[in-house]
Amino acid sequence: MSVLTPKQKFIMALEGKQPPGLVPHFELRMFLTMEAFGKVHPEHRNYFQWEQMQEKERQLHRLEMARINIDTARRFDHSAIFLTTGIWQPQEVRKLGN
User: Contact 13/19 with Cβ under 8 angstroms?
Assistant: First the structure.
């Protein structure tokens, strides 16, 4: 029997099936980053000067946002990542997903 990935288990649960092991889960607005990593979650940061930053600076912020989301998912064994950025421009969310 092959081992299911967290993604496969999550999809099973969304389809109403019962995956083996723990119930698939993800962080839904609990913001555990300060407690777990000593970092402010991107949702709680202020990016009002985003457009004034150089692309290189924005990319550094995107990488930090991605790191926080990935580290949180790994630390708490999440099955999926609820992507939150603090920046709600669709093109920026897509860049973060890449």
Answer: yes
